[in-house]
Specification:
Chain lengths: 323, 276
Amino acid sequence: MGIEITGVSKRFGDFVALDDVSLSIPSGQLTALLGPSGGGKSTLLRIVAGLESSDEGQVVIEGRDTTGVPAQKRNVGFVFQHYAAFKHMTVAKNVAFGLEIRKRPKAEVKAKVDELLELVHLTQFAHRLPSQLSGGQRQRMALARALAIEPSVLLLDEPFGALDAKVRKELRDWLRRLHDEVHVTTVFVTHDQEEALEVADSLVVINDGRIEQVGTPDDLYDKPASDFVLSFLGPVTTLGDRLIRPHDIEISRYEQAAVVDGPITRWTRVGFEVRLEVTPTDPRHPDPVQVVLTRSDATALGLHPGDRVWLRPQSGADTVVPA
Amino acid sequence: MASRTRAPRTAGTYVRRTVVAVYLFLLVVWPVALVVRHTFDGGTANLEAALTDPVVTTALRLTVVVAVWAVVINTVFGVAISILLVRHEFRGRRVLSALIDLPLSVSPVVVGLALLLAYGGANGALGPTVEGLGLQIAFATPGIVMATAFVALPLVIREVVPVLEEVGTEQEQAARSLGAGGWQTFRRITLPSIKWALVYGVVLSLARSLGEFGAVKIISGNLIGQTQTATLVVEQKYQDFEQGSAYATSFLLALIAVAALVVVTVLRPKEDPDGD
């Protein structure tokens, strides 16, 4: 159940947006489609919603084949990056839209709208126009509007992309809590790996129209299937001939069995972090290695700029041989 | 709408204002004011004479009927063509877009002649066929409506197209995903978004339709008391040395057009609510 995507392809002229994508999204979960811009994740979401048609392949939502079913018959809730608020309607009318289209009795519509406005904390704004709301409030309204139709799946296309950093963080936490209350199968598209890692139950990394990896945030972060996933999910550096996260490197001022050694050639302090660059003495690996450690660790190890240090992966750290 | 920053006033500011004011006065305000003054030369006598002259009243009635038909037709087709141009990709879209401006660039006299060639009762390409079906186009109301609709064709479209482009498709897509069909989406989402542009286009079309002269003169045959519209009456009365009636009819034509523009300007919200 949930969403079953089989062999979906989509081309825009010569550009291949999606190349034979198959994916199974389980019911009731919060799934993130993560990837760089232009990678095809939004296209996939829009195909599931019926806002775009696929050239090939099949999408089955909660056991129902949606091939040839227009968007308005799919019962899919969709939230747009730029809110797509109905500008000429009040907040309450926006939320009521799907129910009025379905010709539900007035009393039922009102009760449902009140309940949803309560859920998204917009009760006191019910009679305002969208133009009188902040971006975060508009997106909460759009979410209530999508939830009003009791969709079989809720799809969000870069829902927090147009908001400033602080509001984005608030809404992210709020979406997580909302999903824990409502339990509707939810898929959201994002290019922000922190957002995906923090909010989602499961991640789908999409790049160049293909799926790179599917898994839980821990799986993907700790056991990336490719160097693309490794580098997309967080900072990465080259140690010898392997890729590794800069905070997974063990650094010592004393000679030890090491992959690389050399002087500390750069020293940047950002808050509680110290970011170092070590230029290897071995001419086979001339590129500087990035190392990140806490300030207290750096002090405890007695490190100073210019010191010669020995580097190796910390025990248990995952490394990847680049493709 | 962006707020205009006020630059410091210099001598140049006043020179520019004076030039614009003099230009508009000499070109527009003064001549139109003269028409009004001559209309009321002898009090309301000219108006009374015109309004009791069956030639004038018939012509005014015909003008209103023709203008209403032309506006209705242009509104329906204007909205349909605008949506086609903005929301659909197809071969020949640019050609269609250019073609829509044709009525603005071609002389109305040419339009009248072209319609006569196509629908003229005796020699028109389609005229005899249509006449065989019992419908007279040339030298009758249908022909006048067609000529008027032709010359006013671009006005609704040119008002609606930019607004449709600016509004974008996201609201319509959202409506679809919430279960609205094509007609429901148009009526509840698209139409309210283009409402003011449409009203403005309708008023401009109305004003243009009331004032059409050249195309109507040819296709109508200018039959006094039958197919003569108000603008044709003005010309004829003026040439027949009945200037009083000519001024009064001109005044009434201008009055309707100005009144429509004033009503829209008053009704239109100062700033479109921006939901972005």
